[in-house]
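Below is a filled-in request sheet from our internal design queue. Each sheet records the structural input a requester submitted and the sequence that came back. We keep these sheets so that new team members can see what a complete request looks like end to end.

REQUESTER: design group, bay 2
PRIORITY: normal
MODE: inverse folding
CHAIN LENGTH: 170
BACKBONE (tokenized):
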């Protein structure tokens, strides 16, 4: 069974159509939209600040979503994929975003819509990631604009695939 716990009397809000892997951890002030999934060994920790997730968000294996006490909550839009072992901390991620494997997004960052954060990228504190772009590197910088084909071919494809994958476990 997954670890789903209240913190200071506030319990996670998880719709019935979401998939939560048996060793995932979700605690505290976490609100999830419909068709979300939290995969094996992922942690969504709403203990020190709130975490709000839109619809069709997948938090892949080993990823961590957290915030900073009294400073930085985490808000994630719709149709967002958080790749394996990524760290999303005290930031805002808007709609139609792919966060690559092992990427780190720090406090105060805003990742605008229709964006890809490359695997291993580090988005440093308070960075504004430009809409419709790809960011890569350490520290991450814009490397190019994203095409409409890449949005449908990668961002949407992966978000839709995780809805299919989660159906295999229900």
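RETURNED SEQUENCE:
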């Amino acid at each position: 069974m997954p670890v789903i716990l209240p913190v200071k009397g506030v319990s996670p809000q998880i719709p019935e159509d979401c998939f939560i892997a048996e060793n995932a951890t979700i605690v505290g002030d976490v609100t999830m939209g419909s068709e979300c999934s939290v995969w094996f060994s992922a942690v969504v920790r709403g203990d020190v600040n709130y975490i709000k997730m839109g619809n069709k968000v997948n938090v892949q294996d080993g990823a961590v979503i957290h915030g900073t006490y009294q400073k930085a909550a985490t808000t994630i839009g719709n149709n967002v994929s958080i790749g394996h072992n990524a760290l999303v901390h005290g930031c805002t991620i808007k709609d139609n975003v792919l966060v690559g494997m092992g990427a780190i997004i720090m406090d105060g960052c805003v990742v605008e819509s229709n964006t890809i954060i490359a695997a291993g990228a580090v988005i440093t504190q308070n960075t504004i990631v430009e809409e419709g772009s790809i960011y890569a590197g350490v520290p991450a910088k814009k490397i190019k604009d994203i095409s409409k084909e890449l949005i449908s071919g990668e961002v949407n494809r992966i978000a839709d695939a995780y809805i299919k994958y989660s159906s295999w476990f229900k």
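SHEET NOTES:
- Helices lie at 148-167.
- The mean pLDDT is 97.
FILED BY: M.R.
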